[in-house]
From TrEMBL:
Lineage: Bacteria, Bacillati, Bacillota, Bacilli, Lactobacillales
The protein's name in its UniProt record: Threonylcarbamoyl-AMP synthase
Entry's Gene Ontology BP terms: regulation of translational fidelity; tRNA processing
Binding locations of ATP: 54, 58, 114, 118, 140, 148, 192, 223
One Gene Ontology MF term: L-threonylcarbamoyladenylate synthase
Listed Pfam families: Sua5_C, Sua5_yciO_yrdC
UniProt keyword Nucleotide-binding, yes or no: yes
A GO CC term assigned to this protein in UniProt: cytoplasm
Cellular compartment(s): Cytoplasm
E.C. number(s) listed in UniProt: 2.7.7.87
Function comment: Required for the formation of a threonylcarbamoyl group on adenosine at position 37 (t(6)A37) in tRNAs that read codons beginning with adenine.
Length: 329
């Protein structure tokens, strides 16, 4: 067990030193907190898999502070990449490119001929990477299979004693992991929806993109709390709450303020705020909070329309709930 230090934003130089020494440092981004280590240090990268309990064949992204750090591994960036970088970086968009031979350790890429690159919109983290003078790997800083962390406290809960430190820059603003788009093939393929929507990407690239099939995305378990999660359609809240109150086990309710105000459920609740943007920002914190409440066996969660940011929200909710919709049998 090591002591996990909390760094304030003005202590980022110390955190950068730790990265250079091969230590693990969790860092803030606009999406969720990441778990950083020098991407060119195989030993450090291996420790990231250990700390997360992550399967060794699930590749890590490379988090950069500038485009030069990407070029070092991929050479010239293709036109789609340049267009998306100009429009959306720094921001919640991860780009997958073919890499130059032997440029990145197979420990990072899982032996793939491609790698995922991300430049987060967080000044403290960009400064840390610049100071460390090395790109860092940056998976979400949760234990593998658990909800992604949107606060330093969430990271501490999962990683205490396993990593050298956490740079605390408060709660993240987006709350869902970045959109991932694969630019290594004949057509751009979105492999994970995020805050940058399909529509936005298609408008900028002036073409249709494909989506990776959900089934092939389910290889690893995701956002898997101990409690069962079910989705509730808006029209079902009244009967769902009436049903929930009568159950022999505790049910948690995650819904917008308006829904909680309308039905005033006498149950454990978590307020998602107002609208899909608030709900996305608060989603993982809500799942963590209700899951940690004693005896909550079931969490009922509000659905949103599946467009724009709703694509990302519903993708995470479908994974957390194994696509189960609540109904009265
Ligand atoms: O918003 C985010 O992207 C956050 C913050 C911390 O930057 N990071 C994040 O990393 O969500 P992670 O590792 O939890 O999710 C990245 C996903 C993984 O599912 C991984 O399988 C996939 O990206 N990935 C990484 N490299 C890939 C590659 N070369 N080809 C296909 N998928 C890849
Ligand atoms: Mg993750």
């Amino acid at each position: 067990m090591e002591i996990t230090k909390i760094y304030q934003p003005d202590q980022v130089d110390e955190a950068a030193k730790e990265i250079q020494l091969g230590e693990l440092i969790a860092f803030p981004t606009e999406t969720v907190y990441g778990l950083g280590a020098d991407a060119t240090n195989e030993k450090a990268v291996l420790r990231v898999f250990q700390a997360k309990g992550r399967p060794a064949d699930n590749p890590l992204n490379v988090t950069v502070a500038n485009v030069e750090m990407v070029k070092r591994f991929v050479g010239d960036i293709n036109e789609w990449g340049q267009t998306l970088i100009n429009k959306f970086w720094p921001g919640p968009l991860t780009l997958i490119f073919k890499t130059l031979p032997n440029a990145l350790s197979p420990v990072v890429t899982g032996g793939l001929p491609t790698a995922a690159f991300r430049m987060p919109d967080n000044q403290v983290t960009l400064k840390m990477i610049e100071k460390a003078q090395t790109p860092i790997v940056g998976p979400s800083a949760n234990s593998s299979g658990k909800p992604s962390p949107t606060t330093a406290e969430h990271v501490f809960h999962d990683m205490e004693g396993k990593i050298a430190g956490i740079v605390d820059d408060g709660p993240t603003s987006v709350g869902m992991e970045s959109t991932i788009i694969d630019l290594s093939g004949d057509v751009p393929v979105i492999i994970r929806p995020g805050a940058i929507s399909t529509k936005q990407i298609e408008a900028v690239l002036k073409m249709k993109v494909k989506h990776k099939q959900a089934a092939s995305n389910q290889k690893y378990r995701h956002y898997n709390p101990d409690a069962t999660v079910k989705m509730v359609n808006h029209n079902d809240w009244q009967i769902a709450i009436d049903w929930a109150i009568k159950q022999p086990f505790k049910v948690g309710i995650m819904a917008e303020t308006a829904v909680l105000n309308q039905f005033k459920p006498q149950l454990s609740t978590f307020d998602l705020g107002s609208g899909v943007q608030d709900a996305s920002q608060n989603f993982f914190a809500g799942i963590r909070k209700l899951d940690n409440e004693e005896h909550v066996n079931l969490i009922l969660v509000q659905t949103f329309a599946e467009d724009g940011l709703g694509e990302a929200y519903m993708n995470r909710l479908r994974k957390a709930s194994n696509n189960q919709l609540w109904s009265l049998e």
